Amino acid sequence: MSITANLTCQFKSIFNTAAAPRIFFAPGRINLIGEHTDYNGGHVFPASISYGTYALGRKRDDQKLRFYSMNFPDTGIIECDLSDLAFDELHYWANYPKGIILYLQEAGHKIPFGADILFYGNIPNGAGLSSSASIELATGVLVNELFNLNLERIPMIKLGQKVENNYIGINSGIMDQFAIGMGRKDHAILLNCQTLDYKYAPIALDDYVIMIINTNKQRTLAKSKYNERRAQCEQALSDLQKENSISSLGELTVSEFEKNKHLIKDEINRKRAKHAVYENARTLEALEKLQQENLQGFGELMIKSHVSLRDDYEVTGLELDTIVHAAWEHDGVLGARMTGAGFGGCAIAIVAKDKVTDLKETINTIYRDTVGYDASFYIAAIGDGAKELIEE
């Protein structure tokens, strides 16, 4: 039985109906290169992946919304009314779909009836592959189609970010929702996070695959260190602005930065700014490499990215460095780097198909000997963004 057929059976059983639901899917995402550049006025290079969130839904004939997650069966059916979608701690994960529906209403979209919605996600827990944005966009496309709202994709993406920022209270950028909402099979997206200008870049992997390697480390430091790095970059920008008319570090070329870096008085802040500027340049160069189908050149940029995140931005740590350094030593790897905020989460590597099994064993042996527990491995295809799945 296919995953969608199984989920359909579960939907009918849980909501006690014979009617088949409509089925939607929103992927997770990886960021191939361009880390900690988004809030510095630079570019990112994400892609949507084959892991994500399924959302199955049917309209009701009353005002009730009923949510159920196969991932959190102990919470049972979480129920609320269209007229009361305020954040509620007791609704746990269901606050993400509630927030989307609330903001759709506030944007003037008429949602006349409630719905029964079942969710199932296969994004690894705590991996930093953006499961929250995935459930937001899965809900968005489902409600948009069920009620014929005709909402265009960019406004929906902005609503997803608004849910994170204003409803949930997490100060995140727009990259996650954008990659998940605008993903295209076998392509990455070069995105300017300030203007939302974007370009698609084909990824011709041929005899290679993208491997995601989860450190399985709890990212306890990520939030505080993220805020610290952000403040350090803001101070560096303030120093540079004394003699430069710029509004973000992302506006500087590498040569402009080198000419002006003496203005940044604090040595640590200078290192942070160097990463932001150089990483933005690498991300722009990455587009050229992929357009030239130069996968080896792209892999070299990934390596430089990790070195910068390790030495200048200092957000890698023992777990990520152990995985990435082991990958670099393997002859089947074109490039590897941490992805996401750092201090845990995942690394990614571009690996020859015939070396995948050997690489897993090699990395995991080194990782277990160094860290004391196992890493987890996933092969990710690059797929389309959020959409309805039509059964054949």
Provide an overview of this structure:
- With 392 residues, this protein is α+β, with helices and mostly antiparallel strands.
- The protein has 2 domains: 3-202, 2-Layer Sandwich (Ribosomal Protein S5, domain 2); 208-380, Alpha-Beta Plaits.
- Helix content is 41%, strand content 21%.
- A 6-stranded mixed sheet has the order 5-4-6-3-1-13, sandwiched between helices.
- Helix 3 packs across helix 5.
- 45% of the residues are buried.
- The mean pLDDT is 94.
User: Which regions are unreliable across 5 or more consecutive residues at pLDDT < 50?
Assistant: none
Query: What percent of residues are in strands?
Result: 15-25%
Helix content: 40-55%
Reading off the top of the CATH hierarchy, the class of the largest domain is best stated as Alpha Beta
Number of helices: 11
The CATH topology annotation of the largest domain reads as Ribosomal Protein S5, domain 2
**Overall residue-averaged pLDDT value:** 94
Q: Which architecture of the largest domain per CATH?
A: 2-Layer Sandwich
> Any idea how many domains?
2
Elements, N to C (H/E) = HEEEEEHEHHHEEEHHHHHEEHEE
Main sheet: strand order: 5-4-6-3-1-13
Quick take:
The chain is of the alpha+beta class and 392 residues long. The strands form three sheets. The protein has a six-stranded mixed sheet with strand order 5-4-6-3-1-13, with helices on both faces.
